Amino acid sequence: MARAHVIVLGNEKGGSGKSTTAMHLLVALLRDGHEVGALDLDLRQKSFFRYLENRHAYGAREGTPLKLPRMIELARSGASHRETANEEDRANLEGAIDKLSSTCAFIVIDTPGAVSALTQSAHAAADTLITPINDSMVDFDLLGRVDPATNKVKGPSVYSEMVWTSRQRRASARLGPTDWVVLRNRMAQLESRNKRKVSNVLEDLASRIGFRIVPGFSERVIFRELFLNGLTLLDLKQSGFINLTLSHIAARQEVRDMVKALKLPGVGPVR
Fold this sequence. Notes:
CATH architecture: 3-Layer(aba) Sandwich
Order of helices and strands: EHEHEHEHEHEEHEHEHHH
Helix content: 40-55%
Organism: Paralimibaculum aggregatum
Shape: globular
CATH superfamily: P-loop containing nucleotide triphosphate hydrolases
InterPro entries: DNA_Partitioning_ATPase, MipZ, P-loop_NTPase
Protein name: Division plane positioning ATPase MipZ
Largest sheet: 7 strands, parallel
Number of domains: 1
């Protein structure tokens, strides 16, 4: 049985757009005709699965057929011994990936903003790792440490080191290399000193530790409105939820550009 292509959304900081990105990517893959699995490793808040539950409810309420993935809900191990619990969590994740791989070409995994054995295992399983960051030096700290006097990168962050360790685990398991993509969300529309600074340090660190930089989504109110109904920018024309404006069309193009830049195997232009 061929293993599905595993896409992991990873970032230790909240509010970076992981669940929004996961949802838009998932719907893009579904609309391209692929069977897609979904896992939410944030076992407390479950923002990704809540988004999908809202989507199911909207489709049922409006009589609008909306594409949905196969979902497996994981539960945290109840073992009292930490290492035993970690092993059970890892085994449950691998079992879910294997089960979804029997019918799915892609599996999209959303992770919480905290390091655990479960998130580390997900990163090691990732064929594509997407790390959304807000376009600021505050969020860059997730990836690396910068000298405030020279604006030079001093070294990788704890999160970057965790990704490096996960890549080594994949190599030991004779899996292919992870394509690590850093997604720049909430980018300013106009050129600014901060934007140039972030670009320079990102390019410096990218060459050192091996990730690609892809433009993400601008700050838009529509994203918060879409969550409540489980919709994405790709659904708006079909659902009749709102009348499309030029802003919505521009935002939808950002989604298309993001999916194209990910270079996922067998994925065509987003419709």
